[in-house]
Amino acid sequence: MEAPFIDPMNASLREIRMVIERLVQWKGVEPGMIFSVTDCGLYSAALGLSGFEGLEAQLDKLSAAPGAMPVIIDGEDTLVVDARGKHAWLIAEAVLDLAIDGHRRGGSGTVSVINTSEPAELAVVSAIAQKHGLSARVADKGGRMEIAVSAGGADNSVLDRVRREGVPVRRDLWFHLFKLSSNALAEDTVISRTHTGTFVIHPDGRVEGDDHPEFGQDDLSMLTAEKLEYRR
Amino acid sequence: MNMVIDRRSKDSGALRSVSLLRDPAAIMRPERLAAMQPSRISASRFIISRAAKGRWTITCKHFKLDALARGTAVYEIDAGGWILSFVVHSFEPKNEGRTGRIIGTAWDMMGSLIDGPVTQHDVDLVGQEMPLLYHGRASPRTLIWCRSNRSGRIFDTTIQALAEGRQPEIGPLNEAGYVMRNTGLDGNGTFGTRSFLALEPNHPLRPSLSAQMLTAYMMRVFATDLVHHLAREAGGAKAVELRPDILRYLGIGNGSALGLMFYVNNHPMLVDRWLRARERAIAQAKLSAFAPGDGKLDLLLKLIDKAIAYRRNDRTIYKDLTPSSTIADDLAGIRKDLELMGRRIAAGALPLVDLSTAIEGRYVADAVETFYSILIELVPDFADELVETLVADEELVGRPEMSVARLREIIRTDYAWAFAMDLQSERAQRFIWYKSANAEEPRRGIRAEAPDAFNLGLDLPRLAVALDADLAEVPATESVARFLFRHPHYRRIAARIQALAGLPYHSPHADIMSEDFIPAHITRLLNGPIHGLEKTEDTMGRVLRGVLLQGAPLPQDLADGTADPYWYHPAPVEA
Question: How many Cβ pairs within 8 Å bridge chains A and B?
Fold first, then answer.
């Protein structure tokens, strides 16, 4: 049931990260990369790139990306990353890191990227760079994306704005994504319900825990029901 | 217990204070974290202290409930000129869907803490949206959504007694300690509530957890009004209200479970800052000079006596946690040591440093930590200033240009504890942490029993050790950027380690995947020293039930400026 409330609504930073993180996890991104990819999705929405509207499509492309590892091509004055077909969200932070590394070591803070899918999405690095106190400019050089890092991140970063205002999204789209993200959560079973709580009833009827008088009015059928109805 | 004490030094007090901070290797073990106790630094004590100093006022603007408790109430809080509203929707209790667990679907009360005054439209919106929970949206000015249930032990009997013109039976009341209990406090962006880091710099609830604790206080205010209302409905003119001493004694019940482990994992900056604030306050207090007649010793003895009595009267049965009787006995021992210290000190001496060293290892940790909490009352202004700094940005930012060698140094220093653990045996890897699809309930179980679940637990020691092993395989001068380019699966842990480098108290030294890990220890860290709950009874090693704000001043005490600054550890109510 949806109430006639504000539409579009503003999704909060916490909610956005939670939903996208779950979607990314469900799509099989390896655990150590989940947060990085999540923030790419966050900033894609905040910067008006593919955003929430294009989120499912981006994640489908991302999970279908080829398995070859990207490579660094070191030139005399240049650094090029051949993404070998990897989606932009899978390499954005890695490429930015290389640019920051070069910048802070006194060298060039510029990295070029070739052969990435969804190259326009590399624009998320302009927001990611701000957490390092830096600025990043992304330019399309005709088949080659150039990322250049320089000093001076914005005082009012994209992240600060999202914290204050959230990101606008159509209510029906948001709850669609929210419901989809529950695919990353575990199925509720009678056994899994024994994995927390103070009083559990095992499938064989064995009772474990305390029978505290404070909770004598609790609905114990919730612990043994095959399926719990819940509003989602 | 490692402490560096340089008696010869003429360094400033600040340097000596820093030298007294306890070694993380000694206090970051789960068992020691579980022994820590509430103090002035705790969120609930701090909000009361702030409200008392500012003489906040709480006014009931609207209270319209029927005899079955159905209806709405609105309270306005004037926090030193900053207006907040607490909107309540109250329901007739029902059994179906009722449980203290997150999977519950029925509550006796749902409330919302909102910035600014509210209109009827706001009240209606809360009633429309909040029951939808994950399908509902909080209005943009909302700070917290909350839920609470009546005590199964004393709520009905209390109303019955008041309706008959008498006070309720004291025994059950002393044992329960509350008439309503919290079953959910959500904010910081959940359901669209305001993000706390976006609160204005002068917002009265800017220090972490302040909004939640004020909401818990308002639950207590409503609980009182509800009990009185229902007693009047039942008894008419004959009904009486609870005595003020009973009202002060009653707190708000609380249950906490596995979700707090996720909280600790996701808030390492805040955990470090909170524990460092506690340690700094304790260290500063230890440097207190004593002089005859300055009242400090009398204050310490008075507070220890209160703590002893509180523990002696505590009938809670603890399973893995230290019994209150043992803590009371050891506090009595510490009291004797303190008295002896008091008879021997010379003017201007710093005897608490010696005493603190002497009591470690002689008494149970819970008693020692209780004493340390009491010491903080010697430096109240210093402690209160520290709490104001408890606003932490949890963005973990890596350093791409850092060398592999430097990152290994950090790992070997900050995670030395991880290398000493058994991370290989089956027993050490038996459990998985996850959330259920219905109600997003945090759960921890044997992996084989949740085969399709994604692990959400932070496997910190294994990640640190594995990262170090792979770093050892690359040139020491290589940048972390280039290492992570070829090892992207380490991106998150590397950033975490780099961002938290050098912070002493950010993560428990624990393997949470192990069968030997007791989640209740970490829940206790949050519930006790950070939230300020007392009587935190553990069940099945994973759930803690306790009481918050027991003994706290009433709204009239806050407004009048008569609030007792040492309201905690209240004596049982007398008949």
Answer: 220
Cα Rg of chain A, angstroms:
23
Minimum distance, in Å, between the CA of residue B157 and any CA atom of chain A: 13
Note whether B443 contacts A70, CB cutoff 8 Å.
no
Which pair of structure tokens corresponds to residue B67? 């005899």
Listed as ranges, residues in chain B with pLDDT below 70 are: 1-13, 100, 103, 347-348
**Phi, psi (5° rounding) for residue A168?**
-65, 145
Query: So what's the pLDDT on residue A76?
Result: 75
Decide if A3 and B482 are in contact by the 8 Å CB cutoff. no
Q: CA triplet B522, B523, B524: central angle to 5 degrees?
A: 85
Per residue in B461-496, pLDDT (tens digit) is 999 999 999 999 999 999 999 999 999 999 999 999
pLDDT number for residue B521: 96
Query: What share of residues in chain A are helix, strand, coil (percent, to 5)?
Result: 45, 20, 40
3-state secondary structure of A57: helix
Question: Which residues, including other chains, have CB under 8 Å from residue B145's CB and lie 6 or more apart?
Answer: B110, B111, B112, B130, B138, B184, B185, B186, B187, B190, B191, B193
Cis peptide bond prior to B461, omega within 30° of 0 = no
pLDDT given at position B32: 97
Q: How far is the C-alpha of A220 from the C-alpha of B88, rounded, in Å?
A: 27
pLDDT score recorded for residue A3: 47
Does A14 sit within 8 Å of B188, measured CB to CB? Answer: yes
Residues of chain A with pLDDT under 50: 1-3, 231-232
**Cα B53 to Cα A168, B20, B44, B79, B437, distances in angstroms:** 40, 30, 14, 10, 44
Going through B301-342 in order, the beta strands assigned E by DSSP cover: none
Q: Return the residue matching tokens 């935190």.
A: B536
Cβ distance B436 to A188 less than 8 Å, yes or no, reads yes
Q: Do B436 and A33 touch (CB under 8 A)?
A: no
Strand partners, A110: A148
From the list A10, A164, A175, the residue facing B135 with the nearest CB is A175
Which residues lie below 8 Å from residue A48, measured CB to CB, with a gap of 6+? none
Give me the interface pTM, i.e. the ipTM.
0.93
pLDDT at B4: 37
Residue type present at position B27: I
Four-point Cα dihedral A157, A159, A164, A169, nearest 10 = 120
Residue B518 phi/psi, 5-degree rounding, is -110, 105
Element at B407 (helix H, strand E) = helix B404-414
Query: Does residue B537 contact residue B546 with C-beta atoms inside 8 Å?
Result: yes
How many whole angstroms separate alpha carbon B373 and alpha carbon B532? 11
Q: Which residues of B touch A26 (CB under 8 A)?
A: 454
Query: Residue B479: its chain A contacts at CB < 8 A?
Result: 101, 105
How many angstroms separate the CA of residue A51 from the nearest CA in chain B?
19
CB contact under 8 A, A232 and B257: no
* Region for A215 from its dihedrals, namely left if φ exceeds 0, alpha if ψ lies in -120 to 50, beta otherwise: alpha
Sheet holding B82-90, edge to edge: B57-65, B71-79, B82-90, B109-115, B142-150, B178-187, B251-256, B543-548, B534-539
φ/ψ (deg, to 5) at A147: -115, 125
Option in B135, B400, B435 nearest A186 (CB) = B435
At residue A222, the pLDDT reads 63
For residue B297, CA distances in Å to A108, B304, B326, B341, B566 come to 64, 11, 24, 9, 15
pLDDT at A5: 67
